[in-house]
Design the sequence.
């Protein structure tokens, strides 16, 4: 039988379920008095033993006191973030256990009540936070957005969360980071009232000098402009400025970016609002460059050429 994360390390053997208030108080008391290193060990133990647990299982594991631990982890993470400490990964993984727990909607509400969303966006926007930790923060944001339309609207309307994601996209260096960014932006954009503003920002990102940024922005735009697979979600009407941005991409030399530009150009050709501009732009690209050519006044004879 799996040993409880509360009972392990407390010197009690043979305890099957740490549901007593005394054990919970002892565990939380150890947390409150522990050093940073000791708390990191407690977090690692919690993540190892509680990963993939449901909300009711977490409550049962902690004797209906899981919310008290969640509050402490949030406070600990805020302290480390404001203190400029680089190591945030274990606390973020612990929060992911709570937010990813099935039937754990209560934990999501408590996380939001403690300012967890603002803290998550702050971590994503902080250049001093390691990219791997910013990705973990983005995963928390994805968990919130996937919890329902209301939360997706709250992220974008109340906290301008798409700004933090786009800013991270422009700074992220790993392809795996961009894959998650693409997924989150598509999820935030579909059916969102601020999707028009997001399109304008993505078009500006197409002019970036970073190939990964151009690729990710192109892929997100193509998904938002195309009819969604989700019933009832209306595709985004294209901005005419998209055509100019596509032309700029075609002027580059990265094969992968050129492919995405081609796919995005095909999408612009399908849309009525951008079709005339896209056709005109393609015609101009097919025209040969202008150059001066002077025809000789007299054509030389063959003998003079070969003599």
Sequence:
């Amino acid at each position: 039988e799996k040993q409880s994360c509360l009972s392990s390390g407390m010197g009690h053997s043979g305890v099957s379920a740490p549901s007593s208030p005394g054990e919970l108080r002892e565990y939380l008391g150890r947390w409150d008095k522990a050093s940073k290193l000791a708390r990191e060990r407690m977090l690692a133990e919690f993540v190892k033993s509680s990963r993939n647990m449901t909300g009711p299982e977490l409550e049962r594991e902690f004797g209906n006191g899981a919310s008290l631990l969640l509050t402490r982890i949030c406070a600990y993470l805020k302290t480390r973030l404001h203190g400029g400490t680089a190591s945030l990964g274990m606390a973020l993984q612990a929060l992911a256990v709570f937010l990813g727990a099935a039937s754990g909607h209560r934990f999501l509400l408590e996380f939001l009540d403690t300012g967890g969303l603002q803290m998550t966006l702050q971590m994503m926007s902080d250049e001093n936070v390691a990219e791997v930790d910013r990705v973990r923060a983005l995963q928390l944001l994805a968990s919130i957005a996937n919890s329902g339309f209301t939360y997706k609207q709250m992220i974008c309307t109340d906290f301008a969360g798409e700004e933090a994601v786009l800013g991270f996209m422009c700074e992220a260096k790993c392809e795996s980071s961009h894959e998650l960014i693409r997924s989150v932006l598509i999820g935030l954009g579909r059916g969102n009232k601020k999707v028009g503003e997001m399109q304008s920002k993505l078009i500006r990102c197409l002019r970036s000098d970073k190939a990964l940024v151009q690729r990710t922005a192109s892929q997100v735009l193509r998904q938002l402009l195309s009819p969604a697979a989700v019933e009832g979600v209306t595709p985004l009407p294209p901005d005419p400025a998209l055509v100019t941005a596509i032309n700029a991409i075609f002027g580059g030399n990265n094969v992968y970016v050129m492919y995405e530009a081609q796919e995005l150009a095909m999408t612009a050709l399908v849309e009525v609002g951008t079709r005339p501009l896209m056709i005109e732009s393609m015609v101009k690209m097919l025209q040969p460059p202008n150059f001066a050519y002077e025809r000789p006044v007299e054509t030389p004879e063959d003998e003079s050429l070969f003599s």
User: Anything to note?
Assistant: The chain has 17 helices and no strands. The mean pLDDT is 85. The radius of gyration is 28 Å. The first helix runs from residue 21 to 33.
